[in-house]
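Sequence only, no structure available. Ideas?
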Amino acid sequence: MDGGLAGIFGAAFGPMYLPATLHRATPAVRDAGGTVTNPGGFTDIACRAQLEAQTEGPGVREDAVDLAQRIFVLAASITGVITPDDQITVAGQRYQVVRVDRDPGQTYFDLRGRRA
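Reply:
I predicted one. Tokens follow.
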């Protein structure tokens, strides 16, 4: 699916997704001697996301069950890609991204996250 069609998909389904914040990881900056001059951190990006069922797998330990939260992020709501270095906040809960997949049409990111 090209960017135009992905944009149409995002416009049509965006209102059904929750406001969210992608916390994109920024790497530490080092000088020529290897000294960290900027420790890095996160850059916040507004996006639209939807929480799905929790599944067993890499994620947070709750009552001795390893669960991962499935999260869909509309691709049209961000620029660039999402990586396992990133975090996302949806409905007041922050998650560390542990897995990122894309749908065949490139309209959304299919994430698995654990509570950060």
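The radius of gyration is 16 Å.
Hope that gets you unstuck.
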